[in-house]
Amino acid sequence: MNIDLTIIWALIIVVAVFIYVVLDGFDLGIGILFNTFKVGHDRDTAMNSIAPVWDGNETWLVMGGGGLLAAFPLAYGLIFSALYAPIIAMLLALVFRGVAFEFRWRDPGHQKFWDLAFTGGSFLAAFSQGVILGALLQGVSISGRSYAGGWWDWLTPFTLLTGLSLVVAYALLGSTWLVMKAEGSLQRQARSMAWWLGGATLAAIVAVSIATLFLSADYFSKWLNLPNLFWVAPVPLMVALASVAFVRSLKAGHETAPFLLTLGVFLLSFVGLCISVFPYVIPGAVTIWEAATDRSSQVFMLWGTAFVLPMILGYTAWSYWVFRGKVNSDGYHA
Fold first, then answer.
1. What is the pTM of this model?
2. Residues 154, 127 contacting (CB under 8 angstroms)
3. Does an H or E element contain 143, and which?
């Protein structure tokens, strides 16, 4: 049986990117909301809730980017050429955010500055990721095997919409994480934020989905033409059901369910994204097979991935298990 390794590699990268989005998403969300928390106990508790895991979460970003370079080098070159500015902005923001995370403890005399830097870096990183997504969805100008567009082609009203939408969605993840991990005034504030952030996230999903339909006839056909409509209709339906369940879980005072349901909405949105772009890695221009490296390289890398991926999954799962439960300002998990 001749296995299509290109499909397997596309799935590996999709899974890595999704895991990054949900894991780094909630700690970026906490950073986005950070300066709304009370100075002292509440900020320290929010920071300690992600301290044991935040840097490990970014392993998946490295794996996604490295996997794209190794398995789909043409796509890697085109994407980085077209989106150099927002990609560099994202990376610099992640670096600045990481520095702020460490220095707010080691330089208490300037903690206010580092708190602002932590929020600013988190916001810029999230916004840049949304802009990158929007720029890919709206398409990249290509001539032959080279980028043919300009420096500012990525900057459009649509990419600004996707950038702000991802900021709101990450903030929702962060608030529901704190509902699950915190207690007292911080948990009450996070629960209050989750109400309006949940509504804003749902509105953002609707707005981006409608705007995407009009970017390309291919998007419109996949989602609204028959018989495709019957196959894809369960996705928005399940988003609606998950949203109703989310509201009910908040009303009932549940602590874990809001976070899990938010992850479910992220997963469904990600599935919808994959439906929209497949089989392209650069929508409308380059398919995954056109961008893929040769089969022998795919086989070689797959052996290495089969060894490394379970290790990454294992230590990620172990770290979250060890630091399960509630957290306080001293960093203790109950």
1. 0.90
2. no
3. strand 142-143
Tokens representing residue 268 in the block? 């469904």
CA distances from 308 to 64, 184, 262, 300, 313 (A): 13, 40, 29, 13, 9
Give me the average pLDDT of each 10-residue run along the chain (334 residues).
77 86 87 88 84 75 79 84 89 87 78 86 93 88 78 88 94 93 88 92 92 85 81 88 92 90 91 86 83 83 84 83 74 53
158/137 Cα distance (integer angstroms): 9
**DSSP string for 67-83:** HHHHH-HHHHHHHHHHT
Contact between residue 194 and residue 33 where contact means Cβ atoms under 8 Å apart: no
H/E element holding 301? helix 295-322
Q: What token pair was written down for 329?
A: 């300002």
CA 281, CA 292: separation in Å to the nearest integer?
10
Q: How far apart are CA 42 and CA 47, in angstroms?
A: 9
In this structure, what token pair is assigned to residue 331?
């960093």
